[in-house]
Amino acid sequence: MTHATTALLLTAPVAVPLAACAAHAVAGARPRTALRPPAPRAAALAPAPAPTAGRTAGGGGALLTAAPGEGAEGGGGAPAAGKKGPPREGGEGGDPGARGGGGLPAREDGLARTGGRSRPLRADGAGGRSGTPRTGRDAADAPVPPPTDPASGMPAFTADDPAPGPGPRTGGTAEDAPRRPSLVPWLGLASPLAILACGAVLAAELPGAAPLTACGRLLRADALTAWMLLVVGAVATVACAATPAHLAHERPDAPAARRYHLLVHAFLAAMSAAVLAADLGVLWVAVEATTLVTAFLVGHRRTRASVEAAWKYMVICSAGIALALLGTVLIYYAARQAGVPEPAALDWTVLAAHADRLDPDVTRLAVGLVVLGFGAKAGLAPLHAWLPDAHSQAPAPVSALMSGVLLSVAFAGLLRYKTVADAALGPGYTRGLLAGCALLTLALATALLLGQRDYKRMLAYSSMEHMSLIALAAAVGTPLALAAALLHMAGHGLAKAVAFCASGHVLRLLHTTRVGRVRGLLARAPALGTAFGLAVLALLGLPPFSLFASELGIVRAAFAAGAGGYAAAALALTLMAFAALAARTARMLLGPPPPPPHGDPAGTPVRLGPAVVLPLAAGLLACAVLGVTAGPLTRLLTAAGELLGGR
Prior knowledge:
The protein has 647 residues and is an all-alpha fold. Helices cover 58% and strands 3% of the residues. The protein has 19 helices and six strands. The chain has helices at residues 3-29, 190-205, 223-250, 254-276, 280-298, 304-337, 348-353, 360-377, 386-393, 396-425, 427-450, 455-476, 479-510, 521-524, 526-539, 546-560, 564-589, 610-628, 633-644; strands at residues 63-66, 118-121, 148-149, 154-155, 212-214, 219-221. It is globular, with a radius of gyration of 27 Å.
């Protein structure tokens, strides 16, 4: 492989996402022509009759109905203030997010309508009730509902649109020029596909070959790097493919949408830099960059809960990463005292080669700090408290990225330090540290799963459970255990990406994250319920998904290495977590669906379009294929396990 090709393969996973960030930044900085504000729709309608008794609280004969939003206040479809008698058509479930207004029945063109501004409805010119759905000739004068994307079955508002309100972006009324779906959100797939392609090429070249370096040996690709690039690219592809459908429902304004895409691409660039870093200092900087970027993504909605979760995430992870920085400085000090040249004092391969010269006491303290610091980013106890709040408040694709790959990338960085520590101190020290963190995290996650009533937080605690199993495999430390841990990272990332993306659709369909309020999901939305149920089955470690093979490999390796006590304790706790997760999910999926809203006699199952179903199906298929056979990736997994196992 030529030097230019090597440099391209090692820099493209970082350069392509950064180029996408620059493109979104330039698009946001580009001056826009002053637009004529759109004419209010109410002004174009027929004059309203004089106020009458029983007129709605909206005043002026126009009824304002707000489409439901995630976390919106107000009862769905309650009668307007001052109105007596039964609710209007669509009263109980027509618009659950509306503030005190009934009106239009719920839309079921894919998923229930969410987000957006209040839409004024024309008053009845003949003196009828305001907001009553029209029939016959009068129906032609009624406002037209927003167009629907035929691919996803969702409203065709895109993240490109400056606002979800009426009127095209060039002024005038909504009838002047219909909105068209934009391809800009789908261009976000360029970054994950570039990462996935570079990982695939490196996976084909590296087993049995020497590692590749670039950028003055700051970037290095070995078997572990190639595997982690594949994991990051695959999970990011699922999450980014689900993003357009997600943003189509949230309908953010143009600056918010650009900021979202910019931060996601920066997030992918930081994770790629972390897995490619040969220098432990560059690794630390990249992991810290993921903290800064994802803090803004967690608070993307700017609600009180999301901002609080973002601050909590920043404070805890910054404290943890500061401990990791102190540990890195101590390792640098020990390397310089051992005579390692300054430019290579943080190169982890050089440190592993000269580990016998490192001061044992300084190295022991440094490794303990690094385990605490990077363990905080990986969701391990005791610095784990940020994880359930951040994962439950972030947008669903961001939660998929954070749970699916951010935790694994942070733990992969910890494995680099572990290689140096095992060579300097022997495997016993890191085994005790990691096994203790693993069992403590698993016990906490199991206890919290047993009493959990929120399905997004339930998935977050499931992430803690799986990261504790990966930490247990790292504590065992044999090549088989480490290869099983890497396989577990891939299977968990794919399954958790599908589960979080599906949970976002459940939230928009039912407007609740409470497990007790979700019933009959398989009957209400068969495709969505099937995807969510299969993702949870994969997380439970059932065949044919790859988590079954990886957990079996971890247990076998633990008993073979004499760590059967750790494995037995982990199995007992895992079975309890299994029961809690299975019971909550069965309650959501099975049983009859809730009765249809008042005035919605159809009650037909919700049908999802290809834009929603295909990313979920692709993630589940990849997870199942990995469980049946790793195929050509077997050599890569074996090489990565031997590299981390010190062979």
